[in-house]
Specification:
Number of strands: 36
Bound molecules: CU-O-CU linkage, copper (II) ion
CATH architecture of the domain at 218-372: Sandwich
Shape: globular
Helix content: under 10%
CATH topology of the domain at 218-372: Immunoglobulin-like
Distance between the termini: 59 Å
Radius of gyration: 22 Å
Strand content: 35-45%
Strand order of the largest sheet: 17-16-14-19-24-21-22
Largest sheet: 7 strands, mixed
CATH superfamily of the domain at 218-372: Cupredoxins -  blue copper proteins
CATH class of the domain at 218-372: Mainly Beta
Length: 515
């Protein structure tokens, strides 16, 4: 039984309890769904009845404690291993997790201190860890072929690369403004399935400037990792990998070549969870960690006064000034740091975070219930951060980069490419000079592509309502072009940029080398 979004709206608008619904269905897959208009990909249907929405409390990923600290560095250890989660009633879901959990533990760093994370790979395949949004020296950035092979040998790396056996340390200087960063797998040819199985976590960076602002803090500063997943008969996350062992041929079956869309929305790993709030302001660090799904988030009902969301930050940290939104359009890997003011609601109200681009189950994300009054000394200042605007005249080089499906059939499919070429670790597409600013014209063809550039933060020229501030990922609709101004001032070396639709990424990727 599926409740349509309209029914659900009516139920909540009338003040009735949030209508629980079951959005399960037993067909195996459905291409050609209308959802494909807003997200590239096909919906993979779950084979089991899905959980009832708004019943599970929102989990908060545990904060990882350093194993030791010294005068300038905090040391952490993470073991990547198989774990189990309770997501679908009565079934156990296997996850590949950082410390066996999905999402992984949250790392909290402070600008001015170095963070070192020792990763141990107890999974059956090689892994690579990338700190998304981090300004990291190239050897610690998680280049796709810098593999950590499994503990105990027995590696089946699909590609040769430099790498480590079993364990390695990633060193993060984190000399950059406070921001919501995240870490995830980046293994050559297998990023999509390995992230889907659970290899993603938050890494929050703090600094004195952010801390001095009177924004909501502590328990009212909440990370929200949104993902969509589908479930197989045995409760496992289903994924249409050509080789489900992830040791042989990479890629997905042809129906899903444009992207894998799940039919169950998880927030912090829980299906359509619910969070109890006081009638005060909360800060939410929203991350879309889905493989292929884009969302347009809104509150239902929207508050009787004020904006639904006041955006205070973007991918790379705080905005110059807050921006009010009624909707938030969020592509894969983007982060929106927002404040929701629940004082506009009454105690007892139930508010749903909806996805206006979804259908039936995917039209909902999570619920909030305003359970009681609370005191609130938080405030959103008119001025948040100093952002030096880059201008076109700062750019010393212009480049055109087109993301499209193009060229000769490989493994039975037309590959996703950058400027007509699928990824090759050897080929350098751009070679910016250290210390300069460049203008890159990024163009998307065929379907939407969220483009992510490692290392170098950028500003979007003539940004739409959602794209202000310093960004590391830009959402492009099919046929769109964005002009971004990038500053290459942190490290020299070879890095990648790519589409963050994880089914496109391993092909739709290219190198740049800062010289
Ligand atoms: Cu979030 Cu290269 O990735
Ligand atoms: Cu990145
Ligand atoms: Cu893409």
């Amino acid at each position: 039984m599926t409740l349509s979004r309209r029914h659900l709206l009516r139920a909540t608008a009338g003040g009735v309890l949030l209508a629980p619904f079951v959005a399960g269905c037993s067909s195996v897959r459905g291409g050609g769904n209308a959802e494909t208009e807003s997200s590239a990909g096909a919906v993979l249907r779950s084979a089991v009845p899905l959980p009832t929405a708004f019943t599970v409390p929102l989990p908060i990923p545990p904060v990882l404690r350093p194993t030791r600290t010294d005068h300038d560095t905090d040391y952490y250890e993470i073991t990547q291993r198989i774990g189990h989660a309770q997501i679908v009633p009565g079934l156990r879901t296997e996850v590949w997790g950082y410390n066996g959990i999905f999402p992984g533990p949250t790392i909290q760093s402070r600008r001015g201190r170095r963070t070192v994370v020792r990763h141990r790979n107890e999974l059956p395949t090689p892994v690579v860890i990338h700190l998304h949004g981090g300004r990291t020296p190239p050897e610690h950035d998680g280049y796709p072929t810098d593999l950590i092979t499994p503990m105990g040998g027995n590696a089946h790396p699909g590609h040769a690369g430099s790498g480590a056996q079993g364990t390695r340390d990633y060193r993060y200087p984190l000399d950059q403004p406070a921001a919501t960063l995240w870490y995830h797998d980046h293994r050559m040819d297998f990023t999509g399935p390995q992230v889907y199985k659970g290899l993603a976590g938050f890494h929050l960076l703090h600094d004195d400037l952010e801390e001095a602002l009177p924004l909501p803090k502590g328990e009212r500063d909440v990370p929200l990792m949104i993902t969509d997943r589908s479930f197989a008969e045995d409760g496992s996350m289903s994924y249409p990998a050509i080789d489900p062992s992830l040791t042989g041929q990479p890629g997905v079956t042809t129906d899903f070549i444009s992207g894998v869309l799940g039919d169950c929305v998880l927030v912090n790993g829980a299906p359509w969870p619910v969070m109890e709030v006081t009638n005060t302001r909360y800060r939410f660090r929203i991350l879309n960690a889905s493989n292929a799904r884009r969302y347009r988030l809104a509150l239902d009902p929207s508050p009787p006064a004020g904006s639904s969301f006041v955006q205070i930050g973007s991918d790379q940290g705080l905005l110059a000034q807050p921006v009010g939104h009624e909707q938030l359009q969020i592509a894969q890997a983007e982060r929106f740091d927002v404040v929701i003011d629940f004082s506009a609601y009454s105690v007892g109200d139930e508010v749903t975070l909806v996805n206006q681009l979804g259908k039936s189950g995917t039209a909902n994300v999570m619920g909030f219930v305003v359970v009681r009054g609370g005191t609130d000394d938080s405030r959103i200042p008119d001025k948040l951060a100093e952002i030096q605007p880059l201008s076109r005249s700062d750019a010393v080089v212009e480049r055109e980069l087109t993301f499209e499906r193009h060229g000769a059939v490989m493994h039975g499919v037309t590959p996703w490419t950058v400027n007509g070429e699928p990824f090759s670790p050897e080929h350098i597409t751009a070679d910016p000079a250290f210390g300069t600013v460049e203008l890159w014209k990024l163009r998307a063809q065929n379907v939407p592509h969220p483009i992510h550039i490692h290392l170098a933060p950028f500003q979007i020229q003539n940004p739409g309502p959602y794209a202000g501030g310093w960004k590391d990922t830009v959402d492009l609709a099919s046929g769109d072009q964005a002009e971004v101004l990038l500053r290459f001032d942190s490290y020299r070396g070879k890095y990648v940029f790519h589409c963050h639709n994880l089914e496109h990424e391993d092909m739709m990727m290219a190198n740049f080398e800062i010289r």
